[in-house]
Amino acid sequence: TITPNSPLEQFAILPLIPMKIGNLYFSFTNPSLFMLLTLSLVLLLVHFVTKNGGGNLVPNAWQSLVELIYDFVLNLVNEQIGGLSGNVKQKFFPCILVTFTFLLFCNLQGMIPYSFTVTSHFLITLGLSFSLFIGITIVGFQRNGLHFLSFLLPAGVPLPLAPFLVLLELISYCFRALSLGIRLFANMMAGHSLVKILSGFAWTMLCMNDLLYFIGDLGPLFIVLALTGLELGVAILQAYVFTILICIYLNDAINLH
């Protein structure tokens, strides 16, 4: 149970449209709503930018933003994924572009007051990371066949140590997906909680009818403003880190070492 005015109150999942089928309970929650809003925002942005048959010759601000994201992810794919021709790399580009754009807009949307940070929930980030990781594993088997399993046993390992190393490598491989989800969730949740705590402290001091409290409030207020700017940078950085790690893992699956 989350107490009122708690820093964790902003992460509470609330059922907006409860639904139940037999013993299965479904509900349309606030994370579902904000994920739909994020997807709608991205689709509307792309629609308005491309509705004139590919955009304007002289790009406006929104078209420049879309082109910036597109070029950024395209360069990321070309730099991080090796051993493939440009045409083959393009098969992975849409998935990586959608992942980066979705995470970026979800993180930035969470910076809006009274909104909801979708990526601050472990199940959501874990579901996304494991879904992508399963896809990467399938690509690895498609490209390399059963030889893909050779990454579990490095060359030159003594035979008595082989079972232990295979187990350790398998655990390490599976923990890649887990660490992807934990990293994103932990950074977003910790940053938002810290901003909430300091904002509440600054507001409490501001509401006190005392000049000393008001003067003393300026320090926490400036810290909150600085942390908000830092959290904005973290929101962008975490989308980038998640995406570049996906590219690195995809490269490892395609080009076995």
Automatic annotation (TrEMBL):
GO cellular component: mitochondrial inner membrane; proton-transporting ATP synthase complex
Keyword Kinase appears in the UniProt entry: no
GO MF annotations in UniProt: proton-transporting ATP synthase activity, rotational mechanism
CDD domains membership: ATP-synt_Fo_a_6 (cd00310)
Record flagged with keyword Mitochondrion: yes
Keywords of this entry: ATP synthesis, CF(0), Hydrogen ion transport, Ion transport, Membrane, Mitochondrion, Mitochondrion inner membrane, Transmembrane, Transmembrane helix, Transport
Highest taxon above the source species: Eukaryota
Membrane-spanning parts: 24-49, 91-110, 122-141, 221-250
Topology in the lipid bilayer: Multi-pass membrane protein
Family: Belongs to the ATPase A chain family.
UniProt name for this protein: ATP synthase subunit a
